[in-house]
Amino acid sequence: MAPSHILVALLVAFAVASPAAQATRVHGEAAAAAPAPGEAVLHLSSMPLIPLIPCSMVPDIPLLKDILRLICYDDKPTPTPPPPAGKTCRPLLTNMTTPCGSFLTTNDSASTPQGGCCDSYFAVIDKDAPCICHIANGDIAQLLPAPINMTRVYALPDACGSALKLEPFANCERDGIKMPPMDNPSPPPPAH
Fold this sequence. Notes:
The protein is mainly alpha-helical. The protein contains 6 helices and 2 strands.
């Protein structure tokens, strides 16, 4: 930016600030008399400052820099921070897949859950109940070594002696049930 443009921007900043400074001045003098009814009082804090120049064009001269920062606009996009790491269902469901894996993937209707399967199933319900949505909708299949058998998934509560049926949780998102994600979302790619 040419020096003449900076000078113009500086003059505009002072022109905007000067009337407000005079209207609210108490600099070494007694406070001004109270305004007459209906008379407006101009305060600098209530005046909008109009951004005139990009902040990247503000020269690095201490006093001038401070003044021009009042009337510059941010011309660099702010990078979007990655979402905070939140609670996910993967750890609970991973703990369930080892003892329950063979039950959930077999076609043998006579098999029963192995030791620890029901305990890990109840742990999901006790620690983070909405994670059962990932069992009921089949998302847990991505953690299993073989194709999931959804008939067996829906038979798990009965096999474990639970009154909580999984079928109603097959469409949690559609039904408005807030469930933690299976995994945290990937961070956005870096801006170039």
